Amino acid sequence: MEGLERILGEHRLFVGLPQPFVALAAGCARNVAFNAGDYLFRSGDPADWIYLVRHGHVALEAAVPGRGAVMFETVSEGDVAGLTWLLPPYRWDHDARAIEPTRALALDATCLRNKWETDHDLGCEVLKRFLGLLVQKVNAARFQVLDIYARHY
Amino acid sequence: MPAITEPLAPAEGDPMLPRIVRVGKRARDHNGTVTLTLESADEMPLPTFRPGQFTMLYVFGVGEIPVSISGDAADETCLVQTVRAVGAVSQAVTELQPGDTLGLRRPFGTAWPLEDLNGRDVVIVAGGLGLAPLRSVIYHVLANRARFGNVALLYGARNPADILFRSQLEMWRKRLDVQLDVMVDHADSSWHGRVGAVTLLLPRLAVDAARATALVCGPEVMMRFVAAGLSDTGIPDSSIWVSLERNMECAIGLCGHCQVEGLFVCKDGPVLRYDRVRRLMGVKEL
Amino acid sequence: MVHIVGLEDTLGSHPFAEGMDPDALRTIVGCCANAVYHPGDYIFREGEAADNFYLIRHGLVALEIHVPQGPPIVVETLEAGDIFGWSWLIPPYRWTSDARASEQVRLLKLDGACLRGKMESDRSLGYEIYKRFVPIMARRLASTRMRIVELATEPAVTPRHKG
Protein backbone atom coordinates (compact mmCIF):
# COMPACT_ATOMS: atom_id res chain seq x y z
CA MET A 1 0.00 0.00 0.00
CA GLU A 2 2.78 2.41 0.89
CA GLY A 3 4.40 1.68 -2.46
CA LEU A 4 1.23 2.59 -4.35
CA GLU A 5 0.90 5.81 -2.41
CA ARG A 6 4.43 6.82 -3.25
CA ILE A 7 4.02 5.96 -6.94
CA LEU A 8 0.71 7.81 -7.14
CA GLY A 9 2.10 10.88 -5.40
CA GLU A 10 5.03 10.96 -7.84
CA HIS A 11 2.89 10.78 -10.98
CA ARG A 12 2.90 14.11 -12.81
CA LEU A 13 -0.87 14.44 -12.44
CA PHE A 14 -0.82 14.11 -8.67
CA VAL A 15 2.41 15.90 -7.78
CA GLY A 16 1.63 18.34 -4.96
CA LEU A 17 -1.66 16.69 -4.03
CA PRO A 18 -1.99 16.78 -0.21
CA GLN A 19 -0.88 13.46 1.29
CA PRO A 20 -4.25 12.48 2.84
CA PHE A 21 -5.86 12.69 -0.60
CA VAL A 22 -3.06 10.64 -2.15
CA ALA A 23 -3.68 8.02 0.51
CA LEU A 24 -7.42 8.01 -0.23
CA ALA A 25 -6.92 7.72 -3.99
CA ALA A 26 -4.26 5.04 -3.56
CA GLY A 27 -6.98 2.87 -2.00
CA CYS A 28 -8.43 2.57 -5.52
CA ALA A 29 -5.10 1.85 -7.24
CA ARG A 30 -3.20 -1.16 -8.47
CA ASN A 31 -0.14 -1.68 -10.64
CA VAL A 32 -0.63 -3.02 -14.15
CA ALA A 33 1.72 -3.91 -17.01
CA PHE A 34 1.11 -4.44 -20.72
CA ASN A 35 3.22 -5.98 -23.46
CA ALA A 36 3.63 -4.25 -26.80
CA GLY A 37 0.47 -4.92 -28.79
CA ASP A 38 -1.74 -5.48 -25.74
CA TYR A 39 -4.92 -3.46 -25.47
CA LEU A 40 -5.48 -1.50 -22.26
CA PHE A 41 -9.11 -1.23 -23.30
CA ARG A 42 -11.26 -1.45 -26.42
CA SER A 43 -14.03 0.68 -27.79
CA GLY A 44 -17.41 -0.33 -26.33
CA ASP A 45 -15.94 -1.70 -23.08
CA PRO A 46 -17.07 -0.11 -19.82
CA ALA A 47 -14.72 2.77 -18.97
CA ASP A 48 -14.03 1.68 -15.42
CA TRP A 49 -10.25 2.09 -15.08
CA ILE A 50 -8.08 5.18 -15.10
CA TYR A 51 -4.58 4.46 -16.46
CA LEU A 52 -1.83 6.72 -15.17
CA VAL A 53 1.10 5.80 -17.39
CA ARG A 54 4.42 5.35 -15.57
CA HIS A 55 6.57 3.98 -18.39
CA GLY A 56 5.98 3.14 -22.02
CA HIS A 57 3.93 4.44 -24.89
CA VAL A 58 0.23 3.95 -25.59
CA ALA A 59 -1.69 4.65 -28.81
CA LEU A 60 -5.26 5.93 -28.62
CA GLU A 61 -7.02 4.99 -31.82
CA ALA A 62 -10.44 4.59 -33.38
CA ALA A 63 -11.40 2.03 -35.99
CA VAL A 64 -12.59 3.37 -39.32
CA PRO A 65 -14.53 0.88 -41.48
CA GLY A 66 -12.46 -0.19 -44.45
CA ARG A 67 -9.39 1.72 -43.38
CA GLY A 68 -8.07 0.18 -40.21
CA ALA A 69 -7.44 2.27 -37.13
CA VAL A 70 -6.65 5.98 -36.97
CA MET A 71 -4.32 7.02 -34.17
CA PHE A 72 -5.26 10.47 -32.82
CA GLU A 73 -3.08 10.64 -29.73
CA THR A 74 -0.21 8.84 -28.06
CA VAL A 75 0.33 8.87 -24.35
CA SER A 76 3.58 8.37 -22.48
CA GLU A 77 5.11 8.67 -19.02
CA GLY A 78 3.32 11.09 -16.72
CA ASP A 79 0.15 11.21 -18.82
CA VAL A 80 -3.25 9.51 -18.56
CA ALA A 81 -4.50 7.02 -21.15
CA GLY A 82 -8.20 7.62 -21.72
CA LEU A 83 -10.52 10.10 -20.04
CA THR A 84 -13.91 8.76 -21.12
CA TRP A 85 -14.45 7.41 -17.60
CA LEU A 86 -15.25 11.05 -16.73
CA LEU A 87 -18.20 11.11 -19.12
CA PRO A 88 -21.45 9.22 -18.52
CA PRO A 89 -22.37 6.55 -19.54
CA TYR A 90 -18.70 5.66 -18.87
CA ARG A 91 -18.06 3.59 -22.00
CA TRP A 92 -14.84 3.78 -24.06
CA ASP A 93 -15.33 5.25 -27.52
CA HIS A 94 -11.81 4.35 -28.69
CA ASP A 95 -9.10 1.73 -28.22
CA ALA A 96 -5.89 2.06 -26.23
CA ARG A 97 -3.02 -0.16 -27.40
CA ALA A 98 0.45 -0.41 -25.90
CA ILE A 99 3.03 0.43 -28.60
CA GLU A 100 5.86 -0.45 -26.23
CA PRO A 101 5.90 -2.44 -23.00
CA THR A 102 3.95 -0.18 -20.68
CA ARG A 103 3.57 0.08 -16.93
CA ALA A 104 0.69 2.04 -15.43
CA LEU A 105 -1.12 2.68 -12.23
CA ALA A 106 -4.75 1.71 -12.73
CA LEU A 107 -7.33 3.48 -10.58
CA ASP A 108 -10.78 1.97 -10.21
CA ALA A 109 -12.97 4.76 -11.58
CA THR A 110 -16.08 3.80 -9.59
CA CYS A 111 -14.06 3.56 -6.41
CA LEU A 112 -12.55 7.02 -6.98
CA ARG A 113 -15.91 8.56 -7.91
CA ASN A 114 -17.51 7.14 -4.77
CA LYS A 115 -14.73 8.62 -2.68
CA TRP A 116 -15.00 12.08 -4.11
CA GLU A 117 -18.79 12.05 -3.95
CA THR A 118 -18.58 11.57 -0.19
CA ASP A 119 -15.48 13.74 0.25
CA HIS A 120 -15.88 16.93 -1.78
CA ASP A 121 -12.49 18.21 -0.67
CA LEU A 122 -10.90 15.22 -2.35
CA GLY A 123 -13.27 15.70 -5.29
CA CYS A 124 -12.26 19.32 -5.71
CA GLU A 125 -8.54 18.52 -5.71
CA VAL A 126 -8.77 15.51 -8.02
CA LEU A 127 -11.32 16.95 -10.46
CA LYS A 128 -9.27 20.13 -10.76
CA ARG A 129 -6.34 18.06 -11.98
CA PHE A 130 -8.34 16.02 -14.45
CA LEU A 131 -10.03 19.19 -15.67
CA GLY A 132 -6.63 20.77 -16.29
CA LEU A 133 -5.67 17.70 -18.30
CA LEU A 134 -8.94 17.88 -20.27
CA VAL A 135 -8.36 21.54 -21.12
CA GLN A 136 -4.84 20.73 -22.32
CA LYS A 137 -6.09 17.84 -24.43
CA VAL A 138 -9.03 19.77 -25.92
CA ASN A 139 -6.62 22.56 -26.92
CA ALA A 140 -4.29 20.01 -28.50
CA ALA A 141 -7.14 18.27 -30.37
CA ARG A 142 -8.28 21.67 -31.66
CA PHE A 143 -4.80 22.30 -33.00
CA GLN A 144 -4.85 18.94 -34.77
CA VAL A 145 -8.28 19.57 -36.28
CA LEU A 146 -7.09 22.84 -37.85
CA ASP A 147 -5.04 20.69 -40.26
CA ILE A 148 -2.45 23.46 -40.25
CA TYR A 149 0.34 21.67 -42.09
CA ALA A 150 -1.80 20.64 -45.03
CA ARG A 151 -3.52 23.97 -45.41
CA HIS A 152 -0.46 26.10 -44.81
CA TYR A 153 -2.20 28.60 -42.53
CA MET B 1 7.40 43.36 -58.81
CA PRO B 2 9.08 44.18 -62.12
CA ALA B 3 8.52 41.64 -64.85
CA ILE B 4 11.62 39.80 -65.96
CA THR B 5 11.32 39.33 -69.67
CA GLU B 6 14.62 37.64 -70.49
CA PRO B 7 17.51 36.13 -68.58
CA LEU B 8 20.30 38.59 -67.96
CA ALA B 9 23.99 38.29 -67.27
CA PRO B 10 24.93 37.85 -63.62
CA ALA B 11 25.42 41.13 -61.86
CA GLU B 12 26.79 40.78 -58.37
CA GLY B 13 25.65 44.23 -57.33
CA ASP B 14 22.10 44.35 -58.59
CA PRO B 15 19.57 42.24 -56.70
CA MET B 16 17.01 42.72 -59.45
CA LEU B 17 19.06 40.83 -62.02
CA PRO B 18 19.02 37.04 -62.15
CA ARG B 19 21.92 34.77 -62.98
CA ILE B 20 21.72 31.37 -64.59
CA VAL B 21 22.05 28.17 -62.57
CA ARG B 22 21.67 24.51 -63.49
CA VAL B 23 19.82 21.72 -61.69
CA GLY B 24 22.44 19.18 -60.56
CA LYS B 25 20.22 16.81 -58.60
CA ARG B 26 16.52 16.54 -57.99
CA ALA B 27 15.05 14.65 -55.03
CA ARG B 28 11.36 14.07 -54.67
CA ASP B 29 10.05 14.11 -51.13
CA HIS B 30 6.40 13.58 -50.19
CA ASN B 31 3.33 15.30 -51.48
CA GLY B 32 4.68 17.34 -54.38
CA THR B 33 7.73 18.58 -52.48
CA VAL B 34 11.02 18.60 -54.37
CA THR B 35 14.56 19.44 -53.27
CA LEU B 36 16.84 20.76 -56.01
CA THR B 37 20.62 20.91 -55.85
CA LEU B 38 21.61 23.91 -57.96
CA GLU B 39 25.04 24.38 -59.50
CA SER B 40 26.65 27.29 -61.23
CA ALA B 41 26.10 27.32 -65.00
CA ASP B 42 28.39 30.24 -65.73
CA GLU B 43 31.78 29.41 -64.16
CA MET B 44 31.15 31.97 -61.42
CA PRO B 45 30.91 30.79 -57.81
CA LEU B 46 27.42 30.43 -56.43
CA PRO B 47 26.27 33.13 -54.05
CA THR B 48 26.80 32.37 -50.38
CA PHE B 49 23.84 32.49 -48.01
CA ARG B 50 23.03 32.60 -44.34
CA PRO B 51 20.53 30.02 -43.00
CA GLY B 52 17.02 31.43 -43.06
CA GLN B 53 17.45 33.33 -46.32
CA PHE B 54 15.61 32.55 -49.54
CA THR B 55 16.25 33.08 -53.23
CA MET B 56 13.98 34.07 -56.09
CA LEU B 57 13.86 31.26 -58.64
CA TYR B 58 12.78 32.08 -62.17
CA VAL B 59 11.50 29.45 -64.56
CA PHE B 60 11.84 30.76 -68.08
CA GLY B 61 8.52 31.52 -69.65
CA VAL B 62 6.58 30.79 -66.45
CA GLY B 63 7.55 33.20 -63.71
CA GLU B 64 9.39 33.74 -60.46
CA ILE B 65 8.83 32.68 -56.84
CA PRO B 66 10.66 32.86 -53.50
CA VAL B 67 12.10 29.49 -52.44
CA SER B 68 13.63 28.44 -49.11
CA ILE B 69 17.26 27.42 -48.99
CA SER B 70 17.47 24.08 -47.19
CA GLY B 71 21.12 23.14 -47.69
CA ASP B 72 24.34 23.41 -45.74
CA ALA B 73 25.77 26.93 -45.78
CA ALA B 74 29.26 25.48 -45.31
CA ASP B 75 29.06 23.77 -48.71
CA GLU B 76 29.74 26.46 -51.29
CA THR B 77 29.72 24.14 -54.31
CA CYS B 78 25.95 23.99 -54.53
CA LEU B 79 22.74 25.63 -53.38
CA VAL B 80 20.06 23.25 -52.08
CA GLN B 81 16.49 24.51 -52.19
CA THR B 82 13.18 22.91 -51.28
CA VAL B 83 9.89 23.80 -52.91
CA ARG B 84 6.36 22.47 -52.82
CA ALA B 85 4.02 22.65 -55.78
CA VAL B 86 1.11 24.91 -54.80
CA GLY B 87 0.75 27.05 -57.92
CA ALA B 88 1.82 27.36 -61.54
CA VAL B 89 5.38 28.60 -60.91
CA SER B 90 6.19 26.33 -57.99
CA GLN B 91 4.75 23.45 -60.03
CA ALA B 92 7.17 24.36 -62.85
CA VAL B 93 10.09 24.51 -60.39
CA THR B 94 9.28 21.05 -59.03
CA GLU B 95 9.19 19.69 -62.59
CA LEU B 96 12.73 20.86 -63.42
CA GLN B 97 15.09 17.97 -64.20
CA PRO B 98 18.87 17.59 -63.80
CA GLY B 99 20.56 19.61 -66.55
CA ASP B 100 17.74 22.18 -66.82
CA THR B 101 18.67 25.79 -66.29
CA LEU B 102 16.79 28.48 -64.42
CA GLY B 103 17.23 32.04 -63.22
CA LEU B 104 18.22 32.78 -59.65
CA ARG B 105 18.24 36.07 -57.85
CA ARG B 106 20.66 36.15 -54.93
CA PRO B 107 19.71 35.21 -51.40
CA PHE B 108 17.41 37.70 -49.76
CA GLY B 109 16.08 38.33 -46.31
CA THR B 110 17.19 38.17 -42.72
CA ALA B 111 18.85 35.04 -41.35
CA TRP B 112 18.51 32.97 -38.17
CA PRO B 113 20.73 34.50 -35.45
CA LEU B 114 23.41 31.80 -35.47
CA GLU B 115 25.99 33.92 -33.62
CA ASP B 116 23.52 34.39 -30.75
CA LEU B 117 23.24 30.61 -30.29
CA ASN B 118 26.80 30.10 -29.05
CA GLY B 119 26.88 28.97 -25.44
CA ARG B 120 23.11 28.68 -25.24
CA ASP B 121 20.53 25.91 -25.21
CA VAL B 122 18.96 25.69 -28.66
CA VAL B 123 15.31 24.86 -29.39
CA ILE B 124 14.32 24.33 -33.00
CA VAL B 125 10.62 23.83 -33.74
CA ALA B 126 9.56 23.12 -37.31
CA GLY B 127 6.16 22.39 -38.79
CA GLY B 128 5.46 20.84 -42.18
CA LEU B 129 7.57 22.42 -44.90
CA GLY B 130 9.02 24.80 -42.29
CA LEU B 131 11.71 22.20 -41.70
CA ALA B 132 13.35 23.25 -44.99
CA PRO B 133 14.76 26.66 -43.96
CA LEU B 134 15.64 25.26 -40.52
CA ARG B 135 17.60 22.33 -41.96
CA SER B 136 20.42 24.78 -42.75
CA VAL B 137 20.50 25.68 -39.04
CA ILE B 138 20.45 22.02 -38.03
CA TYR B 139 23.51 21.34 -40.25
CA HIS B 140 25.29 24.22 -38.55
CA VAL B 141 24.32 23.18 -35.03
CA LEU B 142 25.24 19.52 -35.50
CA ALA B 143 28.56 20.37 -37.19
CA ASN B 144 29.48 22.68 -34.31
CA ARG B 145 27.71 20.79 -31.54
CA ALA B 146 30.26 21.64 -28.81
CA ARG B 147 29.43 25.34 -29.05
CA PHE B 148 25.93 24.86 -27.65
CA GLY B 149 24.26 23.67 -24.48
CA ASN B 150 21.31 21.28 -24.78
CA VAL B 151 19.79 21.02 -28.25
CA ALA B 152 16.14 20.12 -28.83
CA LEU B 153 14.56 19.64 -32.23
CA LEU B 154 10.78 19.28 -32.48
CA TYR B 155 9.02 18.59 -35.74
CA GLY B 156 5.29 18.51 -36.43
CA ALA B 157 3.69 17.07 -39.55
CA ARG B 158 0.23 16.14 -40.77
CA ASN B 159 0.86 12.39 -40.86
CA PRO B 160 3.84 10.02 -41.16
CA ALA B 161 3.73 10.10 -44.98
CA ASP B 162 4.16 13.89 -44.93
CA ILE B 163 7.34 13.93 -42.85
CA LEU B 164 9.97 15.94 -44.73
CA PHE B 165 13.60 14.70 -44.86
CA ARG B 166 12.49 11.58 -43.01
CA SER B 167 15.66 9.52 -43.42
CA GLN B 168 17.74 12.43 -42.17
CA LEU B 169 15.49 12.91 -39.14
CA GLU B 170 15.88 9.21 -38.38
CA MET B 171 19.66 9.56 -38.61
CA TRP B 172 19.76 12.62 -36.35
CA ARG B 173 17.52 10.87 -33.89
CA LYS B 174 20.22 8.29 -33.25
CA ARG B 175 22.51 10.98 -31.87
CA LEU B 176 22.76 11.02 -28.11
CA ASP B 177 23.47 14.74 -27.92
CA VAL B 178 20.19 15.96 -29.39
CA GLN B 179 16.60 15.66 -28.16
CA LEU B 180 14.58 14.99 -31.30
CA ASP B 181 10.82 14.51 -31.23
CA VAL B 182 8.45 14.15 -34.15
CA MET B 183 4.73 14.67 -33.62
CA VAL B 184 2.06 13.95 -36.22
CA ASP B 185 -1.58 15.03 -36.17
CA HIS B 186 -2.78 11.50 -36.97
CA ALA B 187 -1.40 8.16 -38.10
CA ASP B 188 -2.31 4.59 -38.92
CA SER B 189 -1.44 1.70 -36.63
CA SER B 190 1.96 1.09 -38.21
CA TRP B 191 3.34 4.34 -36.73
CA HIS B 192 5.47 3.88 -33.62
CA GLY B 193 6.11 7.55 -32.93
CA ARG B 194 4.10 10.25 -31.21
CA VAL B 195 0.66 11.56 -32.20
CA GLY B 196 -0.78 14.85 -30.98
CA ALA B 197 -0.25 18.59 -31.18
CA VAL B 198 3.36 19.73 -31.38
CA THR B 199 2.57 22.28 -28.64
CA LEU B 200 2.23 19.39 -26.14
CA LEU B 201 5.98 18.79 -26.40
CA LEU B 202 6.92 22.30 -25.28
CA PRO B 203 6.47 21.91 -21.50
CA ARG B 204 8.73 18.83 -21.64
CA LEU B 205 11.71 20.46 -23.34
CA ALA B 206 14.99 19.53 -21.69
CA VAL B 207 16.39 23.05 -21.80
CA ASP B 208 17.01 25.86 -19.36
CA ALA B 209 14.46 28.48 -20.44
CA ALA B 210 16.53 31.39 -19.15
CA ARG B 211 19.48 30.48 -21.35
CA ALA B 212 17.66 29.06 -24.37
CA THR B 213 17.14 30.52 -27.82
CA ALA B 214 14.27 29.16 -29.91
CA LEU B 215 13.89 29.18 -33.68
CA VAL B 216 10.42 28.44 -35.05
CA CYS B 217 9.34 27.91 -38.65
CA GLY B 218 6.12 26.55 -40.09
CA PRO B 219 2.64 27.65 -41.07
CA GLU B 220 1.89 30.95 -39.38
CA VAL B 221 -0.87 29.66 -37.09
CA MET B 222 1.48 26.91 -35.90
CA MET B 223 4.21 29.51 -35.18
CA ARG B 224 1.68 31.64 -33.31
CA PHE B 225 0.74 28.78 -30.98
CA VAL B 226 4.27 27.43 -30.63
CA ALA B 227 5.88 30.82 -29.92
CA ALA B 228 3.20 31.60 -27.30
CA GLY B 229 3.77 28.14 -25.79
CA LEU B 230 7.55 28.65 -25.67
CA SER B 231 6.97 32.00 -24.01
CA ASP B 232 4.84 30.20 -21.39
CA THR B 233 7.75 27.87 -20.59
CA GLY B 234 9.76 30.92 -19.58
CA ILE B 235 11.84 31.55 -22.69
CA PRO B 236 11.91 35.35 -23.11
CA ASP B 237 10.10 36.65 -26.21
CA SER B 238 13.38 38.33 -27.18
CA SER B 239 15.04 34.88 -27.42
CA ILE B 240 12.37 33.44 -29.72
CA TRP B 241 12.65 33.85 -33.50
CA VAL B 242 10.05 33.11 -36.15
CA SER B 243 10.12 33.13 -39.93
CA LEU B 244 7.18 35.14 -41.24
CA GLU B 245 6.74 34.51 -44.90
CA ARG B 246 3.66 36.52 -45.72
CA ASN B 247 4.31 38.57 -48.84
CA MET B 248 7.87 37.31 -49.01
CA GLU B 249 7.75 37.50 -52.81
CA CYS B 250 8.34 41.22 -52.85
CA ALA B 251 11.87 40.28 -51.77
CA ILE B 252 13.50 43.66 -51.36
CA GLY B 253 10.75 45.76 -49.84
CA LEU B 254 10.13 48.00 -52.81
CA CYS B 255 6.43 47.54 -52.49
CA GLY B 256 4.49 49.35 -49.81
CA HIS B 257 1.83 46.77 -49.06
CA CYS B 258 3.94 44.60 -46.81
CA GLN B 259 4.81 47.41 -44.42
CA VAL B 260 3.05 47.08 -41.08
CA GLU B 261 3.90 49.04 -37.98
CA GLY B 262 7.21 50.13 -39.44
CA LEU B 263 8.30 46.62 -40.38
CA PHE B 264 8.82 45.39 -43.90
CA VAL B 265 8.15 41.70 -43.44
CA CYS B 266 9.82 41.11 -46.80
CA LYS B 267 12.91 43.24 -46.13
CA ASP B 268 13.28 43.09 -42.35
CA GLY B 269 12.17 39.44 -42.51
CA PRO B 270 11.49 36.68 -43.03
CA VAL B 271 13.32 35.90 -39.77
CA LEU B 272 12.05 38.19 -37.04
CA ARG B 273 12.27 38.34 -33.28
CA TYR B 274 9.04 37.31 -31.55
CA ASP B 275 8.92 40.31 -29.21
CA ARG B 276 8.80 42.55 -32.30
CA VAL B 277 6.06 40.59 -34.08
CA ARG B 278 4.00 39.00 -31.31
CA ARG B 279 1.29 41.61 -31.62
CA LEU B 280 1.57 41.62 -35.40
CA MET B 281 0.96 37.87 -35.56
CA GLY B 282 -2.44 38.44 -34.01
CA VAL B 283 -3.33 40.70 -36.94
CA LYS B 284 -5.32 39.09 -39.71
CA GLU B 285 -3.63 40.75 -42.66
CA LEU B 286 -0.11 42.08 -42.88
CA MET C 1 -31.89 43.34 -3.99
CA VAL C 2 -34.53 42.64 -6.61
CA HIS C 3 -31.77 42.70 -9.20
CA ILE C 4 -29.71 40.12 -7.30
CA VAL C 5 -32.67 37.77 -6.92
CA GLY C 6 -33.28 38.09 -10.66
CA LEU C 7 -29.73 37.12 -11.43
CA GLU C 8 -29.91 34.17 -9.07
CA ASP C 9 -33.03 32.91 -10.84
CA THR C 10 -31.43 33.39 -14.23
CA LEU C 11 -28.31 31.52 -13.16
CA GLY C 12 -30.30 28.79 -11.40
CA SER C 13 -32.39 28.11 -14.48
CA HIS C 14 -29.36 27.62 -16.76
CA PRO C 15 -28.55 23.93 -17.39
CA PHE C 16 -25.01 24.50 -16.06
CA ALA C 17 -26.39 25.21 -12.58
CA GLU C 18 -29.05 22.49 -12.62
CA GLY C 19 -29.25 20.79 -9.25
CA MET C 20 -26.55 23.00 -7.78
CA ASP C 21 -26.29 23.28 -4.04
CA PRO C 22 -28.19 26.51 -3.06
CA ASP C 23 -25.26 27.81 -1.00
CA ALA C 24 -22.91 27.36 -3.92
CA LEU C 25 -25.40 29.05 -6.24
CA ARG C 26 -25.66 32.08 -3.94
CA THR C 27 -21.86 32.35 -3.79
CA ILE C 28 -21.50 32.14 -7.56
CA VAL C 29 -24.11 34.84 -8.16
CA GLY C 30 -21.70 37.25 -6.48
CA CYS C 31 -19.26 36.65 -9.38
CA CYS C 32 -21.91 36.84 -12.08
CA ALA C 33 -23.20 39.57 -14.44
CA ASN C 34 -25.43 39.84 -17.51
CA ALA C 35 -23.87 40.68 -20.85
CA VAL C 36 -25.25 41.35 -24.33
CA TYR C 37 -23.32 41.14 -27.60
CA HIS C 38 -24.34 42.13 -31.10
CA PRO C 39 -23.74 40.06 -34.22
CA GLY C 40 -20.03 40.13 -35.11
CA ASP C 41 -18.89 41.37 -31.67
CA TYR C 42 -15.84 39.71 -30.17
CA ILE C 43 -16.52 38.33 -26.69
CA PHE C 44 -12.84 37.56 -26.26
CA ARG C 45 -9.76 37.28 -28.44
CA GLU C 46 -6.95 34.76 -28.62
CA GLY C 47 -3.97 35.75 -26.48
CA GLU C 48 -5.90 38.04 -24.13
CA ALA C 49 -6.07 37.32 -20.40
CA ALA C 50 -8.80 34.74 -19.72
CA ASP C 51 -10.65 36.14 -16.73
CA ASN C 52 -14.17 34.84 -17.33
CA PHE C 53 -16.39 32.07 -18.51
CA TYR C 54 -19.82 32.38 -20.05
CA LEU C 55 -23.21 30.73 -19.92
CA ILE C 56 -25.30 31.29 -23.03
CA ARG C 57 -28.90 32.34 -22.41
CA HIS C 58 -29.82 33.22 -26.00
CA GLY C 59 -28.06 33.25 -29.34
CA LEU C 60 -25.21 31.60 -31.15
CA VAL C 61 -21.49 31.97 -30.37
CA ALA C 62 -18.64 30.86 -32.64
CA LEU C 63 -15.20 29.91 -31.36
CA GLU C 64 -12.77 30.84 -34.12
CA ILE C 65 -9.10 30.68 -35.01
CA HIS C 66 -8.00 33.47 -37.31
CA VAL C 67 -5.66 32.65 -40.16
CA PRO C 68 -3.40 34.93 -42.22
CA GLN C 69 -5.40 34.51 -45.39
CA GLY C 70 -9.12 34.05 -45.66
CA PRO C 71 -11.96 33.87 -43.17
CA PRO C 72 -11.42 32.50 -39.66
CA ILE C 73 -11.84 28.80 -39.03
CA VAL C 74 -14.84 28.08 -36.82
CA VAL C 75 -13.75 25.35 -34.42
CA GLU C 76 -17.04 25.13 -32.58
CA THR C 77 -20.44 26.83 -32.34
CA LEU C 78 -22.35 27.04 -29.09
CA GLU C 79 -25.92 27.94 -28.28
CA ALA C 80 -28.42 28.59 -25.51
CA GLY C 81 -27.79 26.26 -22.57
CA ASP C 82 -24.10 25.79 -23.46
CA ILE C 83 -21.10 27.22 -21.66
CA PHE C 84 -17.80 28.40 -23.11
CA GLY C 85 -14.46 29.71 -21.94
CA TRP C 86 -12.23 27.32 -20.00
CA SER C 87 -8.82 29.00 -20.20
CA TRP C 88 -9.51 30.69 -16.85
CA LEU C 89 -9.19 27.23 -15.27
CA ILE C 90 -5.48 26.62 -15.89
CA PRO C 91 -2.32 28.68 -16.27
CA PRO C 92 -1.34 30.69 -18.23
CA TYR C 93 -5.01 31.88 -18.11
CA ARG C 94 -5.01 33.10 -21.70
CA TRP C 95 -7.60 32.54 -24.44
CA THR C 96 -6.56 30.07 -27.11
CA SER C 97 -9.21 31.15 -29.64
CA ASP C 98 -11.47 34.06 -30.48
CA ALA C 99 -15.14 33.97 -29.42
CA ARG C 100 -17.57 35.93 -31.53
CA ALA C 101 -21.32 36.49 -31.41
CA SER C 102 -22.86 35.02 -34.57
CA GLU C 103 -26.13 36.76 -33.76
CA GLN C 104 -27.56 38.83 -30.91
CA VAL C 105 -26.31 36.99 -27.83
CA ARG C 106 -27.31 37.22 -24.19
CA LEU C 107 -24.86 35.74 -21.71
CA LEU C 108 -24.19 35.30 -18.06
CA LYS C 109 -20.60 36.25 -17.51
CA LEU C 110 -18.79 34.69 -14.56
CA ASP C 111 -15.70 36.37 -13.20
CA GLY C 112 -13.01 33.68 -13.12
CA ALA C 113 -10.66 35.50 -10.77
CA CYS C 114 -13.54 36.03 -8.33
CA LEU C 115 -14.48 32.34 -8.59
CA ARG C 116 -10.91 31.09 -8.28
CA GLY C 117 -10.54 33.08 -5.08
CA LYS C 118 -13.72 31.64 -3.61
CA MET C 119 -12.91 28.10 -4.69
CA GLU C 120 -9.51 28.25 -3.02
CA SER C 121 -11.10 28.91 0.34
CA ASP C 122 -14.13 26.70 -0.26
CA ARG C 123 -13.34 23.31 -1.78
CA SER C 124 -16.98 22.21 -1.88
CA LEU C 125 -17.71 25.17 -4.15
CA GLY C 126 -14.75 24.08 -6.29
CA TYR C 127 -16.19 20.58 -6.38
CA GLU C 128 -19.61 21.89 -7.53
CA ILE C 129 -18.03 23.85 -10.38
CA TYR C 130 -15.38 21.34 -11.50
CA LYS C 131 -17.87 18.47 -11.49
CA ARG C 132 -19.99 20.44 -14.00
CA PHE C 133 -17.08 21.37 -16.24
CA VAL C 134 -15.58 17.89 -16.39
CA PRO C 135 -18.25 16.06 -18.46
CA ILE C 136 -18.68 19.09 -20.72
CA MET C 137 -14.97 19.14 -21.50
CA ALA C 138 -14.81 15.36 -21.81
CA ARG C 139 -17.62 15.50 -24.39
CA ARG C 140 -15.82 18.25 -26.33
CA LEU C 141 -12.65 16.22 -26.29
CA ALA C 142 -14.47 13.15 -27.62
CA SER C 143 -16.15 15.09 -30.42
CA THR C 144 -12.97 16.93 -31.44
CA ARG C 145 -11.10 13.64 -31.60
CA MET C 146 -13.74 12.15 -33.83
CA ARG C 147 -13.12 15.08 -36.17
CA ILE C 148 -9.39 14.29 -36.20
CA VAL C 149 -10.28 10.75 -37.21
CA GLU C 150 -12.57 12.02 -39.98
CA LEU C 151 -9.85 14.37 -41.18
CA ALA C 152 -7.36 11.53 -41.34
CA THR C 153 -9.61 9.67 -43.74
CA GLU C 154 -9.91 12.65 -46.10
CA PRO C 155 -7.23 13.56 -48.63
CA ALA C 156 -5.11 16.59 -47.69
CA VAL C 157 -6.43 19.89 -49.02
CA THR C 158 -3.72 21.86 -50.76
CA PRO C 159 -4.45 25.55 -51.19
CA ARG C 160 -3.56 27.11 -54.51
CA HIS C 161 -1.32 30.13 -54.33
CA LYS C 162 -0.41 32.53 -57.06
CA GLY C 163 3.15 31.16 -56.99
TrEMBL record, chain A:
Q: Name one Pfam family in it.
A: cNMP_binding
Which residue range or ranges hold the Cyclic nucleotide-binding domain? 13-114
Q: Where are the transmembrane segments?
A: none
Residues folding into a coiled coil are none
Protein name stated in the entry: Crp/Fnr family transcriptional regulator
From TrEMBL, chain B:
Q: What cofactor does this chain's UniProt record say it requires?
A: [2Fe-2S] cluster
Indicate yes or no for the key word Iron-sulfur: yes
Task: Name the residues that bind [2Fe-2S] cluster.
Answer: C250, C255, C258, C266
UniProt cross-references to InterPro entries, sorted A to Z: Cyt_c3_hydrogenase_gsu, Dihydroorotate_DH_Fe-S-bd, FAD-bd_FR_type, FNR_nucleotide-bd, OxRdtase_FAD/NAD-bd, PyrK_electron_transfer, Riboflavin_synthase-like_b-brl
Q: Which UniProt keywords apply?
A: 2Fe-2S, Iron, Iron-sulfur, Metal-binding
Pfam families listed in its UniProt record = DHODB_Fe-S_bind, NAD_binding_1
The record ties this protein, via PROSITE patterns, to: FAD_FR
Where do the FAD-binding FR-type domain residues begin and end?
A: 16-114
The cofactor binding remark recorded in the entry reads:
Binds 1 [2Fe-2S] cluster per subunit.
Q: Which GO terms describe its biological process?
A: pyrimidine nucleotide biosynthetic process
Protein's recorded name:
Ni/Fe hydrogenase subunit gamma
This protein's species is Rhodopila globiformis (Rhodopseudomonas globiformis)
